Amino acid sequence: MQQWVGIIQDTDALSVLAITVAREGVRARDWHRIRNAHEGADVAEPANSYSEALHHVMAFKHYIENQDGYRLINKGEGYFANERDVQTYFGLAWIGTTSDVNREPNNGRGPVDFKVSRGATDKTLIEFKLGSNRQLRRNLMKQVEIYEVANQTKRSIKVIVCYTAKEDERVRAILSDLQQADAENVVLIDARGDNKPSASKA
Predict the structure, then answer these.
(1) Which of the pair, 4 or 137, is modelled with greater confidence?
(2) Is residue 184 situated within a structural domain?
(3) pTM of full prediction above 0.90
(4) DSSP class of residue 174?
(5) Rounded to 5 degrees, what are φ and ψ at 131?
(6) Residue 28 domain-assigned?
(7) Which domain holds residue 123?
(8) Are the C-beta atoms of residues 122 and 53 closer than 8 Å to each other?
């Protein structure tokens, strides 16, 4: 992956393509062709670590839900990627960022999945959970807030990945009960394989 770092730019499309490179091994000449197609794009630099973190989370969500990215983590027949594997794929979306991105830093109250920072006063945490997690309700109520205190920030994003309709229904009920259903910083990713027919069959 190191050979690609210098040419990847910070856009939704190229972040997603970085994941494709890792998965499929795109040839160098094809990668340069793709890159050249995006050169000159007017992409505004995110104002802070939170907006950049949300930017990457939403790009990852779009890739999983709309560009067959779910196949990376949902192999079908009950084979679903665990939280660590999902985090690893998401980490690829950060190639080329100018922010400091740390995996599982532990500042005293346990490791948070990601900490994105632009200095001591601009930090955002990202925590991934699976919809099947039995402790999800408690995690949503307390866990990330504890991490915020330990990392001296009030900004965080919670990402929940669902593999089945049953998980999706359960998670939405929990979010509604906790009054977090419409929260910008709570992102639900649909990684189901049974509700994504091709356009010709939709």
Answers:
(1) 137
(2) yes
(3) no
(4) H
(5) -65, -20
(6) no
(7) 47-190
(8) no
